[in-house]
Description:
Blueprint: E1 3-7, E2 14-20, H1 30-41, H2 49-52, E3 57-61, E4 63-64, E5 67-68, E6 73-78, H3 99-106, H4 112-118, H5 123-138, E7 143-151, H6 157-169, E8 176-183, H7 199-208, E9 213-218, E10 236-239, E11 243-246, E12 254-255, E13 258-259, E14 264-270, E15 281-283, E16 290-292, H8 303-326, H9 331-339
Antiparallel strand pairs: 1-2, 2-6, 3-6, 4-5, 7-8, 8-14, 9-14, 10-11, 12-13, 15-16
Amino acid sequence: MLRFMSAGESHGECMVAVLEGLPAGLLISKDVINRDLARRQQGYGRGGRMQIEKDSVNILSGSKGGKTIGSPLTLMVKNKDFKINELPAISEPRPGHADFAGAVKYGFSDIRCVLERASARETVVRVAAGAVCKILLDEFGIKIKSKVISVGGQKNKQRIKEVIDKARKHGDTLGGIFEIAAENAPVGLGTHVHYDRRLDARLAGALMSIQSIKGVEIGLGFDVSQRPGSKVHDEILYSKQKGFYRKTNNAGGLEGGMSNGEPIILRCAMKPIATLQSPLSTTDIKTKRKVKASIQRSDVAAVEAAAVVGEAMTAIVLAETVLERFGGDDLKKIKKAYNLR
Length: 341
Ligand SMILES: Cc1cc2nc3c(=O)[nH]c(=O)nc-3n(C[C@H](O)[C@H](O)[C@H](O)COP(=O)(O)O)c2cc1C
């Protein structure tokens, strides 16, 4: 079983992830992890924080001589902007953020105690853990990539820049859609036998867990509801060369809660960033007076970055299911089982 946990606050000393259940013998390259960390920092529309940070991973446990040894792998990324104890208290919750519900739930009068953890700064270590899972998946030829489909309703790269500039000028923010593709996943990851082991449910849950993701589609997605079965389901073909295959992939590589051998295609809808530089009205949680929501340093749009986080969450779930299906304590044994499938 592969388990993943993260810890850390946005302006705390560092962000940490622990991956438990990795097999021994996996060669882990810091450069490969750092490449994904750099990709997460990029994208038109990011805010000032990304200019302060230059994210780089430290591997604190779980490897020797660059290879995993079966014990928990601890990944740490330092926050250059470490100042949590100097930051002023906040009592004006931002609509759309975790501020209000978190303050009420935990009984805080200072919303900072909520936003420091709710912040998507946490995704830096999801991406680090995801990069390790990608290295594992790579051993089996499974590749994960992503692309931005639209931002603020625009698909064209130039138009996207223009709408982001316009939103920035008006103190507003944007969301968008990105797509993840996982290629070369074998048939039978996940299972139909129980709800919480279904791969579709696990992938959707993992992607929905990314801050600000409000919709997940698989394959044709919501469009399946508009077409008859004859225009949705992917006929099963066979050739000696290819084995079983499909001419279409409307199911997005997932049937009955299992991978079916076709590329796994997932799309995520990201809502607009909740921190507006021209803030919405809100109610101060201490005075109960109508005020403007707090203004934090913030992104205008972060769909490109969210797509990299989407890759990471997909990699974590696929790595979990590969280990469940072919699992062993060391990489060599898993590869043997994999090749016998
Ligand atoms: C990569 C990424 C960057 C984000 N950057 C910001 C940001 O700069 N400011 C902000 O208010 N929200 C940002 N968010 C979204 C918030 O973290 C998110 O809206 C908040 O935690 C509340 O969670 P919810 O939107 O899922 O309800 C970002 C999300 C992602 C995935």
